[in-house]
Amino acid sequence: MSVNITPIRVMLADDEHLIRGAVAALLGLEEDLRVVAEAASGPEALAMARAHRPDVAVLDLQMPGADGVAVATSLRAELPGCRTMIVTGHGRPGHLKRALEVGVRGFVPKTVSAQKLAEIIRTVHRGSRYVDPELAADAISAGDSPLTGREAELLELAEGGAPIAEIAQRASLTPGTVRNYLSAAVAKLGAENRHAAARIARAQGWL
Amino acid sequence: MSVNITPIRVMLADDEHLIRGAVAALLGLEEDLRVVAEAASGPEALAMARAHRPDVAVLDLQMPGADGVAVATSLRAELPGCRTMIVTGHGRPGHLKRALEVGVRGFVPKTVSAQKLAEIIRTVHRGSRYVDPELAADAISAGDSPLTGREAELLELAEGGAPIAEIAQRASLTPGTVRNYLSAAVAKLGAENRHAAARIARAQGWL
DNA sequence: CAGCGCTGATGACATTCGTCATCCGAAGCC
DNA sequence: GGCTTCGGATGACGAATGTCATCAGCGCTG
Fold first, then answer.
1. Strand B106-109 vs strand B33-39: parallel, antiparallel, or unpaired?
2. Residue A41: exposed, middle, or buried by beta-carbon count in 10 A (0-12, 13-18, 19+)?
C-alpha cells in the first residue's frame, strides 16, 4: 500500500452522527482512503456528492428524505464515475436485489468491522463487487417477489391498517377492486389476511 | 482533565460491529475514558459486565437476545455500582419512560457526536442524569399509555396480523373477550381497527 | 362498606373483509 | 388471429370483525 498513490475519495452518508463520525475517523487512519464528504440525509448526500465528486459513496439504507437505493439511483445518473455501496443495519432480501439493479456495487451489514469496510471500499473502487455472503444467501433463498405492481402498491397502502374504503380512495380505485388485489396478494403470500401479508412482504423487502 | 486520575471504565454493547468498534476507538482517544469491554448481544453484555465490572455501561436499545432496557434491569440488580445508559437509533417515548424506571441514567439518540457522547458518559459517571432534549419532549407530549395491561398484551399479540381466534388461543382467552379488549384499545387510541391501533401503540412505545 | 376499575365472559347485531365467479379492455406474445 | 396476463370493475355470499349491553368476581380505595 504505497503512500504516494492518489487516495480514494470517500463520501459517507448516514443519519446517525455517532456512527458517521466514528467511521470517518477510523477510515481516515487508512492511508489510501480520504473521507471528503459526509451527509445526514438523502438530499444532503446528493448535494455533497455533486460538490465533492467522491470516488466511492457509502450510503446508509435508511435515511430521512431519500433512502440509500434512491440516492444511488440518482448518483448513477449524475455521477457515473462514482461507485456506490450500501451499508445497512437489517438488510432485507428485496433491498439487495433493488440495490444491485440500480448499479450499487457493494452491500454490507453494519456488523462488519471498520477494517473489513475499508477493504470493501477498495474492492468497490477497483470496480469489483462485494455482497455480504449471508445477505446474498437470504436474497437467493427468498427469490423474486410474486406480486404484481398494483398488488405491491395496494399492500403498501394497507400497511398502516387502514380500512379498505380509505385505501380505495387513496388509490382512486373501487373498494371491490382493492379487495380483489389484496385477496390475490394474501393468497400468493400464504397469509391469513392483508395485514399479515403486508408484514410478510415488508420483511422480504418486496414493498 | 488530569492524566493521573483513574480512568472511567466503559463497556459498549451494540450488535453493529462497525459502530461499536468505531465508537470504542474514538472514546479511547479520551484520556479519562477506557473501553474495557464490548458486547454484541444482550446476554453477552451481561457476561462481559460480570467479568469486567465497568463503571458505565453504554447499551444499544435493540440487540439480539435481550434489549438494552432488559440488560439495564439485570445490571441494576447484579452490579449496583455500574451506571447504565441507553443509546438508540429511533427512540420512542415509551422506551425512555421504561428505561428511566429501571434506573438508566442516560438516554441519547445515535445522532449525537462522539464528543458529546464522551461528555455524557462523564456526566452519568458523576451520578447525574442526561436525557436527550428532543426525546424528552416527545416523551412528555406523548404522555402515559392509556392502555391497561391486558389491552397492551393483546395488542401485541394482534400486531402480526393474526386472526382473533389465534390471539385468543395464544392468550388462553375466549374470542369474545379478545374482541372486547381490542375494541377498547381501538377506542382509546382513536384507531380505525386493531391493526392501526397496534401501529399507534408501537410507535409510542406502549407495547 | 360501598364504589370503582380491571379482568373475563356471553350474546346480539351491523359492518367489514375475504373469496369467488364473471366480465371488459388493453397489451404482449406465438 | 388467438392466447395469455394484467389492470379494473361488479355482484354475491359467508366468515371475521367491531360495537354494544350486560353480567360477575376480584382487589383496591375512600
1. unpaired
2. middle
pLDDT 10s digits, A101-126: 889 999 999 989 888 999 999 999 99
> C1' nearest to CA of A172: which nucleotide?
D8
Q: Which residue of B has its CA nearest to A19?
A: B19
pLDDT over 70 (residue A3): no
Beta-strand pair A83-88/B130-131: unpaired
Nearest in space to B35 (alpha carbons), one of B45, B21, B48, B24: B24
CA distance linking residue A5 with residue A60, whole number of Å: 28
Using CA coordinates, name the residue in chain A closest to B113: A18
Question: How far does CA A160 lie from the centroid of its chain?
Answer: 22
Round to whole Å and give the CA distance between A171 and A165. 10
What pLDDT, in 10s, does the model give residues B53-111? 999 999 999 899 888 889 999 999 999 999 999 999 887 888 888 888 889 999 999 98
